[in-house]
Each structure stands twice: as structure tokens, then as C-alpha cells.
Design brief:
Strand content: 15-25%
CATH superfamily: Sugar-phosphate isomerase, RpiB/LacA/LacB
Number of strands: 5
CATH architecture: 3-Layer(aba) Sandwich
Number of domains: 1
Largest sheet: 5 strands, parallel
CATH topology: Ribose 5-phosphate Isomerase B, Chain: A
Helix content: 40-55%
Radius of gyration: 14 Å
Shape: globular
Bound molecules: D-ribose
Length: 146
């Protein structure tokens, strides 16, 4: 699978670990994040990954900042994006199964690398259930037109 990854200065090291892990799992990873620890602005990277996913250059995205919150808020401003912050594996599974999240986000200051790997794996292994969730997702995107 083609996966877009992005991060700010707070998550350079974790981005490297997660990119390596994803590549070990056989995925192609496109890095849109910063590789410098110099302070930078997370909305830039949230938008880059969101546009890559919305434009189908990548099938899904991974975003990491200090908390995962700022970068996911930025990504969610892009039409068609459903970015979800997760700090545990159950949420990571459910955001795919119920919300069909196309971007998963987490915080380098909130979760450790081991848990971050498990979160990404739980998300990738889960399947969207469709059915009753379909209309709710449609309703979310209708908000983009109001
Ligand atoms: C950067 O210090 C920090 O604010 C950022 O990484 C993120 O946590 C924002 O939500």
C-alpha cells in the first residue's frame, strides 16, 4: 500500500521509526514531513499529507506531531479527509472499522514508539464495516458543502 507520512519538529525521530516499520511491513511510504528538529508549523505537514490522500497519491496517511491534535485538525480541513487521533489500539481499529478514517494521527509526546507501531498496525489490519456507518460518513462530508 502507498502511505503518506507527515510530521513536525516534535516527531522527527518517531516518524523515522514508523516509516521504517511500515517499509518492513512491505508498504511504500512517501515522506511529506520535516526531517529537521528546528521548530516548524504543523499545519503545513497536515495539509501536505491530506492533499496526497485526497488526491489519491496515497491510499492513507499517518500524521505525527507532539499530541497528534494540531496536525490532524489541519488535515481535516481538506475536503474528503477523515483524520483521527489515536492513543490506543482499540481506537485505531475502530476509526477504520466505523469511521473509515483515511489518516491516522498520534502524538510523539503522548505514545511511545512501541505503542505507535501497534496503533499503525491495528489501523492497517482493520477493515471498514460499511453498512450503518456509510450514511454517517456521508453526513460528515455534507458539512463540507454548507
Ligand atoms: C509543537 O510544539 C506542538 O505544539 C505540536 O507538535 C503539536 O503538539 C500541536 O498540536
Amino acid at each position: 500500500m502507498k502511505i503518506a507520512i507527515g510530521n513536525d519538529h516534535a516527531a522527527v525521530e518517531m516518524k523515522r521509526e514508523i516509516q521504517k516499520y511500515l517499509e518492513e511491513l512491505g508498504h511504500e511510504v512517501i515522506n511529506y514531513g520535516t526531517d529537521e528538529c528546528k521548530s516548524c508549523d504543523y499545519p503545513l505537514y497536515g495539509e501536505k499529507v491530506a492533499r496526497a490522500v485526497a488526491g489519491e497519491e496515497a491510499e492513507c496517511g499517518v500524521l505525527i506531531c507532539g499530541t497528534g491534535v494540531g496536525i490532524s485538525i489541519a488535515a481535516n480541513k481538506v475536503r474528503g479527509i477523515r483524520a483521527a487521533v489515536c492513543s490506543d489500539t482499540a481506537t485505531a481499529r475502530l476509526v477504520k472499522a466505523h469511521n473509515n478514517a483515511n489518516i491516522i494521527a498520534f502524538g510523539s509526546r503522548i505514545v511511545g514508539t512501541e505503542l505507535a507501531r501497534d496503533i499503525v498496525k491495528a489501523y492497517l489490519d482493520a477493515e471498514y464495516e460499511g453498512g450503518r456507518h456509510e450514511n454517517r460518513i456521508r453526513m460528515i462530508h455534507e458539512i463540507e458543502d454548507r
